Structure prediction request, 315 residues.
Amino acid sequence: MTNIVLEAQNLSKSYNGLQAVKDLSLKVEEGEVFGFLGPNGAGKTTTINMLCGLLRPDSGLVLLHGKAVANGSTETKAMVGVCPQNIVLWSKLTCLEQLIFVAQMYNLPERKARENAKRLLQELNLEEKSHKRAGTLSGGMQRRLNIAMALVHDPQIIVLDEPEAGLDPQSRVSVREYIQSLSRKKTVILTTHNMDEADRMADRVAIIDHGQLLVLDTTQALKAQTGDGDILEISLTNGLADAETANRALIGFADKVTYEENSHSLHIRALNSIAHLPSILERLINAGFAPGEVKIRQNTLEDVFIQLTGRRLRE
Prediction:
């Protein structure tokens, strides 16, 4: 049976008559990496603040292990760690001092605070910088230190807001691998605008817009069922190259069929095309085509995101 660690029930929140979140419900499973996506102004930050107990909803409930969250409660703070998008550090404290200070704010004994701090510095490849002031670190190191600060009190749930923002490729890989190492041991809620990042790391993804939940599923299921569809490129070994005939033959399976003269192939856009491929090939053969080599460009999470939230630029 799935263990639900965090649940939102019909959350709503308005600011000066503007509804930021509307009747939003979702469940986060223990030990998963949960991707929380949406355009700018979609209501992500407001929702996250309510889930963490930092903001009181106008209506609805947030449950941690089935118990209602009390805003600002010591219990909630102990269970949740938050790493904000903007790096927050005390520039004149050393890395070790930062972590011990934060741990003691969560009432950890000094010995435990020091133990956790040293372990995290080692795990995040910052051990050699333990006694360096945070203000002297590179941007990538500061980002990793911020993640350590969110984890130093050993929370069950960690919220990471754009954890790869501003990182070089090496630092991105390092942070990504560390986040993946946390899964199963902790529950990770990941907010990001990087669809590739979410696709690589998230077990399930929720996409919201205008304060409402649009979809919630695994990335594979979303790409198969939503978006513009995969592209099948099927080379033809005979002279028949009539896109209209192919379109009629594939009604119900394909959204669009075009013929590419240079490669003598049909380009077919269809949702869940891998599952439907045998039927697509059978219909083409029955219509007189002679399919040869098949190539596929799978639907991406970005395709899904754009179809659901539109192409209009957001501020």
